[in-house]
Design a protein that fits this description.
Length: about 130
């Protein structure tokens, strides 16, 4: 059987706090490590999706409702469901080490400081097409 969990693959998170959310595999470990002896992947995804906007809303309200909140987390392959979609413009400059996510505050800081920030997902979403997350 071939390896299909590769960086850039869009997956659905099945378990935990972010269950039901779409995510993209940033880095995958098929053989496991000493501290995680199972196949797992570092994923970056969308925690809060943009809400519906109407023509009657003002610019501030539209801007507020269009924001996207992102998350970064390590998941076991059993808790990810791959889709047929691949992210076309997967950025290799955003590859994180797993040591960044060992402490919860570090992972949160990384998410907020723009390594995997909402605007990158917003730009990809506004572009539309096959690469849409």
């Amino acid at each position: 059987m071939g390896k299909f969990m590769k960086p850039g693959k869009v997956v659905l998170v099945l378990a935990g706090r972010y269950s039901g959310r779409k995510a993209v595999i940033v880095k995958n470990i098929d053989d496991g490590t000493s501290d995680r002896p199972y196949s797992h992947a570092l994923v970056a995804g969308i925690d809060r999706y943009p809400r519906k906007v109407t023509a009657a809303m003002g610019k501030k309200k539209i801007a507020k409702r269009s924001k996207i909140k992102s998350f970064v987390k390590v998941y076991n392959y059993n808790h990810l469901m791959p889709t047929s979609t691949r992210l076309s413009s997967h950025s290799e400059s955003c590859v994180l080490g797993f040591q960044v996510l060992c402490g919860y505050p570090l992972g949160q800081d990384c998410c907020q400081q723009g390594c995997v920030q909402g605007p990158s997902f917003e730009a990809q979403g506004q572009a539309g097409g096959q690469g849409q997350v």
